Amino acid sequence: MKFSDKLKKLRKENNLTQDELADKLFVTRTAVSKWETDNGYPSIESLKLLSNLFHTTIDELISDEDIENKKHLEDKIAKNFYWGVLASFLIALGFAIATWITDIPYFIIGSFIGVLAYWVFAYFTVPRYKRIEARKNGSFTKFLIIRLAILAFLIVIIILTAIQTF
Questions:
Q1: pTM score, whole prediction
Q2: Please, are residues 95 and 108 in contact by the beta-carbon 8 Å criterion?
Q3: CATH, domain range 3-62
Q4: For residue 10, what are the CA distances in angstroms to 1, 6, 60?
Q5: Helix axes 128-137, 64-102, angle to 10 degrees
Q6: Crossing angle of the two packed helices 140-165 and 128-137, in degrees rounded to 10
Q7: Nearest to 115 by CA among 84, 80, 151, 79
């Protein structure tokens, strides 16, 4: 049985509405609704409160299937961040090229914003569970080095364009 089904069953067995459960867990009713419709998962703190409230263990609340669903959801979110990385890269490059072609130095600001957005999006392209695993086995450093190399490339292009424009 999936976590969402277990939660709904336990809530109904204890004659609680979503609002009442949300109040007991210090979350919103929307959060409880997302958990029950399999569109989100509670934090560790919320899981602890749930297990105490329903007199069960966290292991009983979460099955292996739930963990896989959460990983799948994180992978899906990471893919969306990947598109943000590509868009940020193209924005930074586009503004650098626009600065070079038009000799308008203020376009370089768009490049720097694109670089900052690139760095933020790049970090989140790896799902959280994979970042944790990578930190344990040391491969996260390789990921950061690659991202830093691309970031350095963008910054060099922007600096060279700025030098030429000014």
A1: 0.51
A2: yes
A3: 1.10.260.40
A4: 12, 6, 12
A5: 90
A6: 110
A7: 151
Q: What is the DSSP letter of 38?
A: T
pLDDT by residue (tens digit) across 95-143?
A: 988 888 888 888 888 888 988 898 888 888 888 777 777 777 777 777 7
Residues 6+ apart with CB under 8 A from 155: 115
36 and 4 in contact (C-beta within 8 Å)?
A: yes
Amino acid at residue number 51: S
- The domains of the chain are located at 3-62, 70-165
Which amino acid type is present at position 56?
A: T
Cβ atoms of 155 and 115 within 8 Å: the answer is: yes
